[in-house]
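Example 3.2
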Amino acid sequence: RGISGDDAVLREPIARSTRHVLVDEFQDTSITQFNFLEGITHAWTALGSGEETLFCVGDPMQSIYRFRQAEVELFSKAQQYGLGTKALITITLSANFRSDAPLVEWVNTHIEPAIASRNAMSRVNIAFAPGSPMLEGRIDTEVVAHAFESALDEAQWVASEISQTLENTHDTIGVLVPNRGAGAPIIAALRNAGIAIDARETERLSDAHWVRDVLSLTFALSEPEDSLSWLATLRAPWCGLALPDLTRIAMASADMRSVWDACAEMGALGLTPDGVARLSQWRAQLMPCVAALGARPLAEIVEAAWARLDARACTPASSREDFEAVIEAIRTHEIGGRLINRDALLVALDRLERTDVAAARVQVMTIHKAKGLQFDTVIVPAMAKGGKSDDDPLLRWMRFPEGAMIVPKPVGKSDPLATAYEWLKGLDEREQDAERARLLYVATTRAKRRLLLSATVKFDDANANAPVRPARSLFGTLPVFTRLVAHRAELSAKPEAGNEPFIGRYLLRRAQFAPQVLAISHAVVTLPPRETAPARAARALGTIAHAWLCAHGNRTTWSEAAAHWAHSQFRVANIAEPLQSVQVELLHSIVEKTQQSAHAAFVFDPTHEAWDEHSFASHKSDGEAITLRPDRIVRTAEGAWWVIDYKTAMPARTDTESVNAFLIVQRKTYEDIMQRYAQAVRKWKQIPVDQPIRCALYFPLLDVLATV
């Protein structure tokens, strides 16, 4: 929050512990952050030391974060008047050690007018500071601009340029798009050309069509009554039902329990012969998987269904590790064959990154993300892509030196507030336009050697050489573009038939898959043996007890609310009575024993530094990616390290001899994984090799902490 000069309760402790403040990217400071810094300087003055320093670094021509409440005028204010009680000395740096001389000179010549013309229209005057080139130009230094009449043509040209650059040079390449949506056709063309790219900012793994298919399959198997997910699996490429057949199934399922049940009566659905053939194969492959629901982990069933449907034939070859990561995410969000929380799974998938980006020389990102980076070759496509027109907000406001002006949305043109509202709207639009010129400056100054600009534009009917400049676009911000673009008759040739990249969003009906019966492998994929009900109940107890211990340790007593929670968790795990009540009583026993146990007091000692279920990326001996997740990592107050796993297993008999024999088997069973946990912790925390890490299995029902 902002700290004012009078807020002594907050400012003094911070000021006493802080002597030197360095602020980077100062041009993107918000008023809250500015007030915070002012408060610190006032506190320094009150303390009377006089030894404190404030160092601010920024470039107002790179202020591009108005949507985060950045106010570039605060930079100018600090330059002129200082910040709080600190006067500031301005040091201007103009030397450019990044770009070749011709690029620097081009920016000085062509971007300066764009910024200057918009300064004149805006209330904030940001003077253009020309760069001084420190590097000589090479013979292949260039600025190239092209206009196209279709996004397909433009994307194909970008892919061709990148392909040639990769083949003939060792350049790093940055494709900088105005916004995420503008990158879609470019990414499609690059992937269509087989070019490895890192597009993690503009293309999340969770947006890949095959990941959406995995989710549809997972949701359908997890919730048999989820009609939409079942219909999505029928439309997916491994089945590919035509829309008329899909509609008949959807209508029939409305009178039955589920889409799956409706498909069992395919003879009465009136499907086309093509639909019957597709549905028969799809249902035959999924029947063993549906039969295993509740008996095997959901992730296991989804993986088997994916193989039986031969869905891998519709998945990029490079996505094997990505698929394993998606399955692992499903595994960590299920209990007893049911998803715990769909939204949590979706959030986890959004955080996954593609594994095929590590060696990519081509990065696709937004211009905002590129700030601070540099590339040998920079391509700025989709420059004619205009920003969305925002709806008029209920309130418009703007800060001025004299104070803030706030105007509510008028109810009509005759409203007395309409003039003031429209005036503020005009000011806001002009400042957005000024920031767009700065965005263009950021994009063009990322290039070291080559700068390629392109746009898909409409041409003026009266002048074939005069492209229309869309409002709210980078193309419209750079008037010189009209003198750089090729003649309309010389635009790049159309791509060859059948070689056009797919452009579009993921929909239930996907254009990239032809409506034909895809070959389905009939290789047998065997599911593991069906679990007995007691075995499923024991496994569910382990999962639910782990969740309780990680969340509560030995701090929470058993209560009616805890019992209600436990019953709900076992119901989700499909554990029916009377086994459900038996497992709840066992969980009750675990909770009570941990509160009375000296071992539990050590494991959950609040003076320890501890981490519950911390994840480590690892791999098996055959290279398969896995996740290591020890239940608890402990560093005692004395500096000793422990890795502890909770085990709810019990021997058949509880006499001393039987328990000792049981513990010998358990130690041997988990010795390897516990050592792998320890190795991961040692690497994570950089623990010296001569410092031991103790591994132990905690059995709450036995009240045993067994070292491994």
